[in-house]
Amino acid sequence: MSNTQLRYGIVCHVKRLKYGSMGREEQIEEREVLDSIFPDEITGLLPHLSGSSLPQTNSAKTIDIDEKSYRIAIKPEIPQDDNDEDAEPPTFLLTITYPPSYPDEAPFLDLSLPPNAPKPPHLDISTDRHHLLSSLTPTISENIGMAMIYTLVTTLQENIETLIRERIAVVQRAKDQEAEDAEAKENAKFHGEK
User: Fold this and answer.
1) What global pTM score does this model have?
2) Cα 81–chain centre separation
3) What angle (nearest 5°) sits at the alpha carbon of residue 168, between those of residues 167 and 171?
4) What are phi and psi of 169, to 5 degrees?
5) Which residues of 15-46 are buried (b: 16+ CB within 10 A; e: fewer)?
6) Mean pLDDT of 26-52
7) Rounded to an integer, what distance in angstroms lies between the CA atom of residue 34 and that of residue 64?
């Protein structure tokens, strides 16, 4: 557990003890904390944060889906393909929607790619989405009653990285086996010529 995650959990836990169940105000507070932790990853600004009732945008951010929904961009740290060292790592969008009784109820989550994003190697979002979101179930269960979005984002990033690394390892083992088989075949020819 990182220091940021620990501090975040303690602050939310103390507020729960002091004020009881988190309501809309605490959801907004969690979102403000997330805005400070993920300033470039959250795709929307809460309109109330601007000091105006009118939404403000800039080139890097857009308005939230609604006041209880937003997206966080996740950029997993994965090894680059030797043939494509300049390739940008894939970005995934986690859409979070607070139900009325969050965090006593799990948030609604969805995982997608940004519009027009290239398909990431070693991962197919249409087939892997369910597995990746289901992998968050134990984390959600452990954190019911506490603000959990930061924990979910970091856990999902780790799960994406693990899945991609496992698939890269499978491809590498197949390449290594193919090279070993070709070498054995070549050695068999050599030994047959004696």
Assistant:
1) 0.71
2) 21
3) 90
4) -65, -40
5) bbeeeeebeeebbbebbebbbebbeebbbbbb
6) 72
7) 14
